[in-house]
Specification:
Elements (H helix, E strand, L loop, with lengths): L1 H20 L17 H5 L3 E3 L10 H9 L9 H15 L6 E4 L2 H12 L5 E6 L4 H8 L3 E6 L8 H6 L5 E7 L11 H10 L5 E5 L25 E6 L12 E4 L2 H8 L9 H12 L1 H24 L11 E5 L4 H10 L2 E3 L9 E5 L3 H11 L5 H6 L1
Parallel strand pairs: 1-10, 3-4, 3-5, 5-6, 6-7
Antiparallel strand pairs: 2-8, 7-8, 9-11
Helix pairs in contact: 3-10, 4-10, 5-6
Amino acid sequence: MIESRRNFLRSLGIGAAAGAAVGWPFRRASATYAVDTDMALQSGGLIRLDSNENAYGPSPRVTNALRSSHAMVNRYPFLKHDEVLEQIASFHQVKQEQVLLGCGSTEMLRVAACAFLGNGRQLIQASPTFEAIEHYAKAVGSEVVSVGLNHGFAHDLDYMLARVGTSTGLVYICNPNNPTASITPRQDLERFIAKLPATVRVLIDEAYHHYVPKSGMYSSFIDRPVNDKRVIVTRTFSKAYGLAGLRLGYAIASPKVVEEMRKFLTEAGLNAIVAEVAGLVLGDTEGLIKLVKRNSDDRQEFFNSAMVRRLKPISSSANFVMMNTEHPAQELIGHFRKHNVLIGRQFPPMNDYIRVSLGTPDEMRAFWRVWDMLPWSKQLMQH
């Protein structure tokens, strides 16, 4: 399943570049990020609430810059690589040799698996979590140890620590976690990392970092680093920045760790279009604040609509929500697909939970209309 999903994402990147090359206009976005949200409904197309994408796309400043970036699509972005590297390093106040660029942060998971796993090595991860690194670990012959989340849907760090052994090469922490959108507290993570053997590296996936509400429980390992050269932090332009189809992610780690990972990096993997706008994206603080605020409002509206229906979603710190339906997730996925709404795939062992990416208001109204068509939905409201 993950392969077909990745192929689909790759096709989006190709389509974006091709569209720019032939002069197709990017959709105009106003200062309030208004888009034609009911287009899918009018055309009989699919409403996509399945991949945790930013439903509004990039900010107007970035959209305007993208319109002029098509002039570079016939060129390899070799000359832009170091510039983008410097922009990211400067933004995070780290050295350039601490930054590794990739085709989305998912490539960072792949190169980490190649560098630090392999035959006789072990990956430890939560269950459920983002599955990509598990697939990459198995592809290089590693054992994968999956540890269930605790009752608060955070990583069960004590049990994960108990499973660490001499063969453990890498621990994967997705925070906020996908698919649960839950937070594992920063203090707990620091204590956990300090207890790990010196040979174990820790990859902290911060794909959804920008969506996390301000709280003493959470802080980024880039913004507030720990003095531990084994820690790798990954970020992406795919989520809050709204550039999933253009594929840019990066890792920040010690120079030595970056060099070990670089050996397995895709050659010339930087997208020419995103290379033209990366610095602008990072500097567009006002645009990011507006996008994050819009997501926060949409998230609250989702919870309001869920509560009316007597549903209790897991508290979310991302741009998606997971909730227990007390019915097989596969049945609901099929029901929504029948009505042209895509929701997240099933995430064992949470087989009665569904994951719903936050869409535009029109898209979310369509979601709830389809939900209310379930034969047992009214029974829940009456309890």
